[in-house]
Design a protein that fits this description.
It is a single chain. The strands form four sheets. The protein has an eight-stranded parallel sheet with strand order 4-14-13-12-11-10-6-5. A three-stranded antiparallel sheet has the order 1-2-3. Helix content is 40%, strand content 17%. The radius of gyration is 20 Å and the shape is globular. It folds into two domains: 250 residues, Queuine tRNA-ribosyltransferase-like (TIM Barrel); 104 residues, no CATH class. It is an alpha/beta fold. The protein is built from 15 helices and 16 strands. Helix 7 runs parallel beside helix 8 and helix 14 runs antiparallel to helix 15.
Length: 380
């Protein structure tokens, strides 16, 4: 298959609609080939081409606008060639909205024991069958072009948070060099390629990383290397000095974040896009996010509780199903429990960013954050 060389002029446009002058929180619209994304926006994670346990119709009902899938995992199974032959990710997973694919860079961190990293590429030993997957910047772009997502990511190195300064600097330099190779390798003009800013929690390295990427003029920029074990306050401080390095007129994506409080704190600092497995992973493990804080539904005190899970919340699940019934589903190991809480949690996240967006337009994003934190209590 041949593609027109990337220029992105017609396919993508980011419109910054309003910035709260009291905080710097932004509301915008990102125009993509598969629809408009109102920002700030949260993307449910569908690593293998599915958000675990949920139909596309349920995701849309929960308010999801855009979903994320993963290059490394789909390259291993079923293979990028298979996805391409079956019509690309949108047709493959029956999702008509925008899709983002991670490049596999996070797996350099999460699967470090199964990979060998050089300046040229990273070689993974498959966690499925032990076979080798060579992932260079050029290969990462080729796979993502076969998958056909709207937004694709440069291959980067995501180091652990506690490595030394030399290792952090080397990761920044490698990420910058790989970004240039990704830009040169891209052929499709209907995919937005994002550069990824690395640098740990060091302000000078974050600035160095951004300065290396800005001349490449990506249509959007991601902030990587956070939520990998550092203290949340260090993450917030890092965002304080990183987002000012990024272009105002382009979308900003914080990768792999996070808890509801993390979303609010990051939006306040000028971030537009988020993804995280937390809503569905916690849902599968019997933890629900609610208007008044987390609920661990397996707790024995809910056995005879007829109260709806979250009667004042945004999800139909929360308003209809009792805590006693939901607890029963998990105790009985019925799959419906994981489905319902995953659905509910995604609706909670989507409603949170939607309400924050409205608060931004009304210049009350700080008040909205404070009100939510007060309602959630000590464990948001």
């Amino acid at each position: 298959m041949t593609y027109k060389k990337a220029n992105h002029v017609a396919s993508f446009r980011f419109e910054l609609q309003h910035t709260d002058p009291n905080t710097g929180a932004r509301a915008g619209q990102w125009h993509t080939p598969h629809g408009i994304v109102d920002t700030p926006a949260f993307m449910p994670v569908g690593t293998l081409g599915t958000v675990k346990g949920l139909l596309p119709e349920q995701l849309k009902a929960a308010g999801a606008q855009m979903v994320l899938s993963n290059t490394y995992h789909l390259a291993l199974r079923p293979g990028a060639d298979v996805v391409e032959e079956l019509g690309g990710l949108h047709q493959f997973m029956n999702w008509s909205g925008p899709i983002l694919t991670d490049s596999g860079g996070f797996q350099v961190f999460s699967l470090a024991k199964l990979s060998k990293l050089t300046d040229d590429q990273v070689v993974f030993r498959s966690h499925i069958d032990g076979s080798l997957l060579e992932l260079s910047p050029e290969k990462a772009i080729r796979i993502q072009e076969q998958l056909g997502a709207d937004c694709i990511m440069c291959l980067d190195e995501c180091p652990p948070h506690d490595v030394g300064q030399d290792r952090l600097r080397a990761a920044v330099q490698r990420t910058t060099a790989w970004a240039a190779r990704c830009r040169d390798a891209q052929k499709r003009d209907d995919q937005a390629l994002f550069g990824i800013v690395q640098g740990g929690i060091d302000p000078h390295l974050r600035e160095e990383s951004a300065e290396g990427l800005l001349p490449l003029d990506f249509p959007g920029y991601a902030i990587g290397g956070l939520s990998v074990g550092e203290d949340p306050n260090d993450m917030y401080k890092t965002l304080d000095f990183t987002t000012p390095f990024l272009p105002v007129e382009k979308p900003r994506y914080l990768m792999g974040v996070g808890k509801p409080v993390d979303l609010l704190e990051s939006i306040i600092r000028g971030v537009d896009l988020f993804d995280c497995v937390m809503p569905t992973r916690n849902g599968r493990n019997a933890m629900a996010f609610t208007s008044n804080g987390p609920v661990k539904i397996r707790n024995a005190k809910y056995q005879r509780d007829v109260t709806p899970l979250d009667p004042d919340g945004p999800s139909e699940v929360g308003r209809i199903y009792s805590r006693g019934y939901l607890r029963h589903l998990f105790v009985a190991k019925e799959m419906l429990g994981a489905i319902l809480l995953s659905w509910h949690n995604i609706a909670f996240y989507e409603n949170l960013v939607r309400e924050m967006r409205q608060a931004i337009f009304e210049n009350r994003s700080a008040e909205f954050r404070a009100d939510q934190l007060a309602r959630w209590g000590s464990d948001p």
